[in-house]
Design brief:
mainly alpha; 0% strand
């Protein structure tokens, strides 16, 4: 027995609820349940929330996978600084990218989800 769910308005609302739930679950995985209550769209992922290094790379990969995002050549290290290193060899001989990074905010992530790409 098929059920009619009443037009595209309900379909859009249902899709929005699923995406909201997916978004909240994603944020809880990376920030914790208590942290998401204070989020605003202008908060920077690295600067305000302190996600960087390996955590930043994991955040980026999980975000792209969870929401099926096309990166269009963007990589985690475009947005996140590497873990600090106090290893003398690494400091002297390996070039580490510690320069300016692209800004990534909560609001930008929401827009990226809607667009499906960076």
């Amino acid at each position: 027995m098929k059920r009619a769910y009443g037009g595209s308005e309900r379909s859009v609302a249902l899709t929005r609820n699923i995406m909201d739930s997916k978004w909240i679950n994603f944020l809880e995985r990376h920030l914790g349940k208590h942290e998401i209550a204070i989020l605003s769209d202008d908060m920077e992922i690295e600067g305000d929330l302190g996600i960087s290094g390996e955590d930043g790379y994991e955040f980026f990969e999980d975000f792209c996978t969870t929401f099926n995002i096309e990166t269009n050549g963007n990589k985690a290290d475009d947005f996140f600084h590497p873990e600090p290193s106090f290893d003398i060899f690494n400091l002297l001989f390996l070039k580490r990218d510690v320069g300016q990074k692209k800004k990534l905010t909560i609001g930008m992530l929401k827009s990226i989800i809607v667009q499906g790409s960076f």
